[in-house]
Description:
Elements: E1 2-8, E2 11-16, E3 27-34, H1 38-45, E4 62-69, E5 81-84, E6 87-88, E7 91-92, E8 104-107, E9 112-114, H2 121-125, H3 127-142, H4 151-180
Antiparallel strand pairs: 1-2, 3-4, 3-8, 4-5, 5-9, 6-7
Helix pairs in contact: 3-4
Zinc ion (ZN) binds at residues 37, 39, 60-61, 129.
Amino acid sequence: MRALRYAGPGRAEVVDLPVPAIADDEVLVAARSVGVCHSDIELLEGRYIIPFSYPQIPGHEWSGQVARVGRSVTGLAPGDRVVGECVIGADHFGFSISGAAAEFFVAKPSWLHRLPDELSWTMGALVEPFSVAYYALVVLVFASFPWQQGPRHRYQAVFVLVWGLVHLVREVLPAVVAWSRGATPSAVGALPEHRTP
Ligand SMILES: [Zn+2]
């Protein structure tokens, strides 16, 4: 199978690897759509927030399809559409353990969530980054009622909202300016052979 592998700092390569074997309690997943996050770039540059080692297969924003299940796995079957958790105990999927930027990769059922049929593979790959934003905004900011819980929560709330606005301006504004000057906007999507009808 083909896989994107970081061999060392600044060294990304597409390699041919054997399809990984699974244990009885594991699932083999066929990648369908995989996003690229700024953290993937940091990993390639040799820095990340937890310890890791090369070679490493990146990819933590993904959607996939169950290809095979171990003998003791229940509740999942080949063909199921899934997305997955990123923080796995002390490890981070796609950073300190192999990620999804390969035709096949190994996961445990407890990391996986079903992707509803009405969501495309590309939308599935956006579940992880969306969840991070949702958690920051809804759980940390609004659900914790920051305005009644002291300066720390007020600080967090203001930080998240301002940082979100900064990113919105930094990333959306150049696209709007380019569009107003005649550029054609385009969105990043799945490869044609991975698109669902
Ligand atoms: Zn990310």
